[in-house]
What we know:
Blueprint: E1 6-10, H1 15-26, E2 30-35, E3 54-58, E4 77-80, H2 87-92, H3 94-115, E5 118-124, H4 151-171, E6 175-180, E7 183-184, H5 195-205, E8 209-212, E9 218-219, E10 222-223, H6 224-236, E11 243-247, E12 253-254, H7 255-265, E13 272-275, H8 290-296, H9 304-321
Parallel strand pairs: 1-2, 1-4, 2-3, 4-5, 5-6, 6-11, 7-10, 8-13
Antiparallel strand pairs: 9-12
Amino acid sequence: MNVLKHIVVTGAAGFLGSHLVKSLIHQGHQVTGIDNLSTGVSSNLEEVANSHLFHFQEADVTLAASLDFLIDQPVDEVYHLASPASPKFYQADSIGTIWVNTQGTYHMLELARTKEAKFLFSSTSEAYGDPEVHPQPESYRGNVNTWGPRACYDEAKRLGEVFCYEYYTKHRVPVKVARIFNTYSSGLRNDDGRVISNFVTQALTGQDITVYGDGSQTRSFCYVDDNIRGLQKMMETEEANGEIINIGNPTEYTVLEVAYLVKKLAQSDSKLVFQPLPQDDPKVRRPVIDKARSVLGWEPEISLETGLKLTIENVRATLQETP
């Protein structure tokens, strides 16, 4: 198999990063994965750990010296996915979350500039905050609270986007910014704290299914295979240079609908219990993906029910293997 490109992926041991790494290696690319393992887990990469196409470097991208090992290597593409993404984890390490999305983004952009590499930044639908425009197009500037428990993630991602803008306009780095909406599959940590991982784990272990608020808040859920396909389409599409593009599923569900669907598909006897809604939790969230369709020729293909069935099957098998 001919090696096609050398691609650097930060956050490689995380949920999205590990799926991306495996996809790129299966396509024959040489991949260097970087992760400080603060929330990523090395077991996510077991499938490719011994591949001659893969090199893993435990490193912190907020430290410029941690990238010195790449000085003499050619780099064709950089996917900067490093960052806690669950409120549970980014609020526990709020300063680290700010640093990886700002200083870390700067260092990775510098790497892309010096190597003349393409660059993709994984931003987030959280850039829209608690939106007053629904659904959310890329042109919407958001409704974000800078003085609250989610700001460390929301605002750090927004500043990361500014770094990308500056490197695109001043240094002509071929930058693409993906605003990623809720993504799921069995690869999410059971203690991740996000909706799907919580519901599936609780349903399969007989725990109460925890719904925050009254469950009327809405989300749009994109299966990980669709997401990874979208990110790769962005990287390979020249028309995406200098663009922000929503990557997500435009089909909207209330959290309560999702809870009942998980309970049904898992054939679970778990009860639903309701807890107070966290501060600044968005009431609605749904992407406009017209730009992804027109620029990338991309849209999600896997329905929530299909994706949940796959997720439940895989999590059930994992739980059965656990001593």
